[in-house]
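Deliverable D2.4 — example input (structure tokens):
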């Protein structure tokens, strides 16, 4: 076929013009990165994920203009291990952030001397090495003090963050519940920090979010001329659900919905700041929840949607989370991805975007999801592993979810039973089964198989004879290799006796303070 040379000239001009336009609006340089984490928000809690009465907001809009994930998993069903995995790209047993007492209740408290081990490489350390300025605002929950009540050995500035704004070392805002809705008498575990300093005790929950937003915005504004990474770790939508006055009764759904609406405002404020500072073209914003909803407290705990179980369990309701990636220049709008991905993928993805090689002597469980984000390909993990402490409970393999052990869900077994919830409030002390072994845990040999694609509620186990032979063999061999290669760190949580002298206390012995200029 004869094509004349003018055609090639025209083509070259078009290509050049197109790449000029592309490079002038969508820079090819390394992006800023904003990671926004929600706390205990379920897979079914946002309007864009199908919640019937939750108001549409900026996160939903961000999903509509970006990429929304339906098979995105957290590496853990609980706060501290989940956060450790997000920051390190490693499953919890490797990080040491798991409970020595074989429980999925893995939370650092004010009397713990331990925290995320200093040797663990975090996203902040990787990006700082790559020349980014790193900032953190909000909930930390990876340890506080080691030797005394104010040494702050485990706080974020020791894990790669140049700037730490208004922050909470613990996830326990429910201890700040002045109305005592979820806890009869609040113990004094309610601390607000700024940097390494305790600035308010107890926290004024009605104004805390404003301080968090102000600090997130000013961190962005202070760094418009350089690359930055912001880790905005929200207190939403964990109980106690106190909101700033303008979101009080803003939702048809009640207090939980008010809290979601406030969170949407926080996210919208951050997006508006990026836009007004002309940073939107060169910033990846990633939103994800740390684990599933606390279904034990009924409607105030959030919704896993059609998934089974919630926080603390390795049923999908505890580990499958809402996730949205937003970068209008590079990510196709309105795309829903079914790729099977994990919070451990964030570190390798961000490292790739920052063009920073990761050290080869560390086992990272995640992998970069750049092909999913930018090419729209559905490159999934072949398998994902889910732990309770250092016990392998379940895996996700293709369309299968496979349980080796499972924890009981509130009797009589299913999420759609409301007998413990009257008017959205628990009637009894909730039935908890957060153990990894013992009475409420069932071992499955052969394992329990679900076709999670067609049975997302994990209701109807399939007999082994229904599973293709090659799937059985492949899963067995992957799990065998994974276990063989697993080098767990010893447990940080519950390994040392609790030490009351480590409890933060401002203005001792009063342990109350409010330093307005510092918040
Ligand atoms: C471990 O669990 C048992 C049973 O629940 C409890 O009695 C014990 O106090 C726990 N130990 C620690 C260190 O948490
Ligand atoms: C706490 O420990 C740090 C570091 O070891 C020390 O600098 C500080 O003075 C100690 N503070 C108190 C109140 O003992």
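Example output (designed residues):
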């Amino acid at each position: 076929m004869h094509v004349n040379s003018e055609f090639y000239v025209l083509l070259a001009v078009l290509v050049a013009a197109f790449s000029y336009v592309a490079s002038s609006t969508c820079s090819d340089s390394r992006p800023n990165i904003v990671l926004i984490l929600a706390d205990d928000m379920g897979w079914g809690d946002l309007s864009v994920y199908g919640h019937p009465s939750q108001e549409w907001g900026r996160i939903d809009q961000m999903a509509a203009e970006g990429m929304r994930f339906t098979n995105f998993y957290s590496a853990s069903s609980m706060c501290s291990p989940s956060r450790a995995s997000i920051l390190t790209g490693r499953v919890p047993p490797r990080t040491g952030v798991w409970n020595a007492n074989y429980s999925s209740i893995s939370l650092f408290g004010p009397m713990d001397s331990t925290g995320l081990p200093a040797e663990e490489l975090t996203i902040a350390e990787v990006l700082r090495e790559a020349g980014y300025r790193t900032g953190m605002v909000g909930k930390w929950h990876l340890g506080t003090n080691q030797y005394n009540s104010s040494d702050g050995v485990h706080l974020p500035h020791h894990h790669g963050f140049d700037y730490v704004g208004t922050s909470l070392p613990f996830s326990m805002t429910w201890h700040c519940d002045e109305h005592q809705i979820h806890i009869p008498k609040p113990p004094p575990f309610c601390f607000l920090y700024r940097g390494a300093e305790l600035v308010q005790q107890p926290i004024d929950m009605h104004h805390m979010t404003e301080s968090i937003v102000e600090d997130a915005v000013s961190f962005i504004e202070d760094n418009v001329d350089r690359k930055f990474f912001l880790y905005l770790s929200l207190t939403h939508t964990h109980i106690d659900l106190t909101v700033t006055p303008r979101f009080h009764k803003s939702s048809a759904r009640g207090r939980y919905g008010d809290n979601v609406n406030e969170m949407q405002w926080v996210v919208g404020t951050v997006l508006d700041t990026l836009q007004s500072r002309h940073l939107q073209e060169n910033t990846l914003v990633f939103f994800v929840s740390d684990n599933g909803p606390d279904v034990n407290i009924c409607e105030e705990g959030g919704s896993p949607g059609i998934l089974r179980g919630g926080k603390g369990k390795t049923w999908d309701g505890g580990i499958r989370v809402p996730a949205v990636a937003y970068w209008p220049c590079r990510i196709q709008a309105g795309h829903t991805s079914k790729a099977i991905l994990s919070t451990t993928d964030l570190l390798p993805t961000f490292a790739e975007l920052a063009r920073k090689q990761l050290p080869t002597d560390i086992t990272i469980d995640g992998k970069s999801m750049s092909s999913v984000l930018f090419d729209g390909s559905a490159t999934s993990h072949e398998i994902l592993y889910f732990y309770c402490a250092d016990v392998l409970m379940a895996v996700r393999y293709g369309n299968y979810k496979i349980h080796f052990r499972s924890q009981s869900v509130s009797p009589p077994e299913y999420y759609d039973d409301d007998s413990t919830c009257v008017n959205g409030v628990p009637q009894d002390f909730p039935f908890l089964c957060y153990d990894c072994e013992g009475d409420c845990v069932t071992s499955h040999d052969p394992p329990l198989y679900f076709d999670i694609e067609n049975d997302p509620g994990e209701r109807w186990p399939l007999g082994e004879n229904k599973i293709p032979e090659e799937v059985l063999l492949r899963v067995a061999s992957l799990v065998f290799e994974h276990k063989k290669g697993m080098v767990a760190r010893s447990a940080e949580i519950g390994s040392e006796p609790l030490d009351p002298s480590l409890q933060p206390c401002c203005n001792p012995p009063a342990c109350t303070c409010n330093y307005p200029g510092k918040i």
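The mean pLDDT is 90.
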